[in-house]
Please model this.
Amino acid sequence: MPTPPDAIGFTQDPLDRMSEKRDDETFLASLSEDAATRFLLFANNNVPLFKRADGHDPLFLAHEAAQFGTPLQTVLLGRDADRRALFACSVDTTAEAAADALPGASVEAIELRPVAMQGLVAPPLVSALGEARSMLDWHRRHRFCANCGNPTDSAGAGWRRICGQCGAQHFPRVDPVVIMLVTDGERCLLGRQPQFATGMYSALAGFIEPGETFEHAVYREVLEEAGIRCADVRYFASQPWPFPSSLMIGCFARATDTEITVDEKELEDARWFSRDEVRAMLDGTHPQGLNAPKAFAIAHHLLKAFVEGD
Ligand SMILES: [Zn+2]
Model:
């Protein structure tokens, strides 16, 4: 079994979340006043803001963050490797209004996916932005109690919401997804969804349903999408995927038959690929221009491990 790489996007240098401090109001107030504290700002449509100079800087100082008005939501993300506290803030602005919000500096709103894909910021910041995006998106979509329908309020430094009417507590959720590379020993099974970029094939994936283990979800999804039965599911690595809040559980599985029947509601195509073909797809040298997900996605690392001889 290959060692999972440390280069998977959104996984590098996770913050110290200081979860035991989330209800310590004195501590939280001291962080807000600490000059080292930094703020990751998101426009209210969940797009991160960057100060533009030589590069893309998502770390706003307190007085810079204040230029965007009182945040709609604040979450304590944690402390980084330099022991600076990072907060995520949703601010009530648009990309156009944000551009000129800071005197003497330009600000740009860029969706997180291209930021991660193109490596516009260092990997630890990609991880922090991912955590921030999932949390702010959760707050934006959970303003009302799922139990009684009344408004809820943020508590615990942004890590739960409480209903003022019935007292129910609501916690941020993570949706588990299995992503699996099915092999028959020499070849692997890849599929193409209609919305993929031209020529791209990737590992099959699907949400885990209530009552399923991740192994059962792998068997079901592969059978549904490609008509292939498989066995011997082996865990590889996982990846938080903040669109909006999934956890990708990367696995290998062994096919026990090879006759593909594509579910055309889910996939445009599914095929077996040899190691040489996958190597060419990862290198960008495939003769038909077929390609595979980039290194920030866990699928890339499953394919790389397969090519390297898993
Ligand atoms: Zn309620």
In short: The chain has three domains: 19-137, 142-173, 175-307. The two ends are 6 Å apart (CA to CA). Helices lie at 25-33, 62-66, 95-99, 112-117, 123-141, 214-226, 275-283, 298-307.
